[in-house]
Amino acid sequence: MSELHYLYGKPTATADLRTVNSDFIVKEILPFSPSGEGEHHLVHIRKDGLNTVQVAEMLAKFAKVHPKEVTYAGQKDKNAITEQWFGIRIPGKETPAWSELNSERLTILSSSRHSKKLRIGALLGNRFILTLRNVTNVEDIISRIEKVSQIGVPNYFGEQRFGHDGKNLVMGRQMLAGKKVKDRNKRSMYLSAVRSNLFNTVVSYRLANHGTKPLAGDCVMLAGSKSFFVTPEWDLVVLKRLIEKDIQLSAPLWGRGKMLPQGEAAEVETLAMAELSEDCYGLEHAGLEQERRPLLLEPQGLKYEQTEDGLVLEFILPAGSFATSLLRELVDYQDVKELQWQATVTPDANAAETNTASETDSAEAITTDKGESAL
């Protein structure tokens, strides 16, 4: 991630992130309320020091159902305190006494029946409360917060998408070159890493060379939607929509089919991807269709508070985005939990970690983007 372009220049402030789990708090925001009836049970939990898969296994065992009957909208980091929804299909059975699962690491916040399955990506967004410690040059962070609130930050996929030391990307390229990977979840994760790296590369190249200005032939997205259309020229009407944030600039989630942008925008993306032609070819033959993702990430309700312990940031991000992509524009941080892991892991364990899903700060599941689970 360090080689990617900084929209406001590399931060001069430094800080520690995730000194303790409570420094990283994430709360899911569902776009609906449970219906109150049906064979699906929606359970709202708070977890501390557990990853999503561990909780899903606990719920399946407690409800005495197959693990496949337990679903969630997005994965959450183990080294954090997170509030998350799980769906458990229990046809023809009484409602379990979910509160019996309560422990120091897991709390049942609420539960209700629902008529539909909880699916990957079924989130409106996530609320974050992050505490930075040992902060230097707070003034620089505050000045950047003001800029970010107005313009946003590059909508990069965070380093979590690529695994420790980028091993998911390495495995993805090996898989596209012919290496067999039997596990469907791992195939999806590796493929997603390749696609995400290509997206990051295009975003970084465009912002470094053209900033946030619109280009002729841009493929723009309707705000809050996956719908898009091409703008051969930027007339006053379309430009006004961009300024009012009714539409957004975008970058490619690569797949088969004709390149979506035209003219100057297409030329810029072609140049950005020139050295990744093998990745493009592999994605085109992996069953993925071309899609788009917003170029910029615009946090909502971004605010800060200076405390005796450091600086507390609070904001809301849409589903599928990464809190670390916002943080990297504000402060040159070090992830304490990650450093602790690196200091204790053995070479053998490190190799094994390559085959483990890396969970996202953004509370985004590996296959949130439509089509990324094709392999």
Automatic annotation (TrEMBL):
One of its GO terms (molecular function) is tRNA pseudouridine(13) synthase activity. Keywords: Isomerase, tRNA processing. GO terms for cellular component: cytosol. Residues 152-297 form the TRUD domain. Residues 350-375 are annotated as: Disordered. It is an enzyme of class 5 (isomerase). The active site is at D77 (nucleophile). Pfam families: TruD. It catalyses: uridine(13) in tRNA = pseudouridine(13) in tRNA. GO terms for biological process: tRNA pseudouridine synthesis. CDD domains: PseudoU_synth_EcTruD. The keyword Transferase does not apply. Its EC number is 5.4.99.27. Residues 350-365 have a biased composition (Low complexity). Responsible for synthesis of pseudouridine from uracil-13 in transfer RNAs. Belongs to the pseudouridine synthase TruD family. PANTHER family: TRNA PSEUDOURIDINE SYNTHASE D. This is tRNA pseudouridine synthase D.
